[in-house]
Design a protein that fits this description.
Length: 262
């Protein structure tokens, strides 16, 4: 009798453990968040913001870098009239009312920016009010170890689950390894190691995608990259291309000091 109960208990616990241990992945080929990532909690990425256009639609990402500044891609900052652009801070689900929405009082765009493929795809939005969300760190201009090929980085955003696929409507995060400049230059003729850096697996499967632009690529909480461009999403042999943030840290910090004295 006693052993029977014990055996049932063991069976019940085994079933329960099995249910709890189902992997988060949805099987090969299934659509996954960002591409190949998982749903993420805003409290784990409090610096992560999204940009909405005049119709209130999410179209890009960004990262809080100070109480009044958001880092994003130049092509995101210039896509919408400044008076229409709103920054949403602290909201995990696009359709919720969590967090806050702020206007933009000023936009700094890298002076040499023309289009993403030419590099310099970086901008700083000044928010109309201060936010309490904790900021992501900027890399030192000499922080080369964060860019070591193979270093694992996290990309977060509200973008598509696969090329031309649906948007999940919530924050997702994925892990990708940093790629060497020479490997990236072999793939993309317009790759510029001064202003860009690549990340992704040789076999593909994990990547940023449409709508993730402007969002951060982080190593240990430091924004090493900004989602900029790519050839499709998560294809084998085609890493994502990010703006190399360390090239601009001095520019961003001197601009910040000039305008806010902080
Ligand atoms: C985009 O269109 C986009 N796979 C962003 C990132 C990548 C591709 C496209 C990288 O916003």
């Amino acid at each position: 009798m006693f052993t029977n109960i014990r055996r049932r208990l063991v069976i019940a616990l085994t079933v329960l453990a099995g249910a709890l241990c189902v992997p988060a992945s949805h099987g090969a080929g299934a659509a996954q968040p960002i591409v190949g990532g998982t749903a993420a909690v805003i409290d784990d990425h409090p610096y992560a913001v999204f940009l909405v256009d005049g119709r209130g639609d999410q179209y890009c990402g960004g990262a809080v870098i100070s109480p009044t500044e958001v880092l994003t891609a130049a092509h995101c900052a210039l896509a919408v009239r400044k008076s229409d652009l709103r920054v949403v801070v602290g909201r995990e689900h696009v359709d919720s009312r969590q967090g806050e929405e702020l206007g933009v009082s000023d936009i700094w765009v890298a002076p040499g920016y023309r289009d993403p493929l030419s590099g310099e795809d970086i901008a700083v939005l000044t928010l109309s009010e201060r936010v309490s969300a904790s900021a992501a760190r900027l890399p030192d201009s000499a922080d080369s170890e964060l860019y070591e090929p193979g270093t694992m980085a996290t990309v977060v955003g509200w973008g598509r689950l696969y090329e031309n696929g649906p948007k999940p409507g919530r924050l997702h995060a994925a892990e990708v390894p940093m790629v060497s400049d020479s490997a990236c230059a072999d793939v993309f003729r317009s790759f510029d190691p001064e202003t860009m850096v690549c990340a992704g697996y040789a076999e593909g499967g994990v990547d940023a995608c449409q709508g993730d632009s402007g969002g951060p690529l982080l190593v240990d909480g430091t924004v090493v990259g900004i989602v900029s461009w790519g050839d499709g999403c998560a294809e084998a042999g085609k890493p994502g291309v990010y703006t190399r943030v360390s090239t601009y840290t001095d520019d961003i910090e001197s601009d910040l000091i000039r305008r806010t004295g902080e």
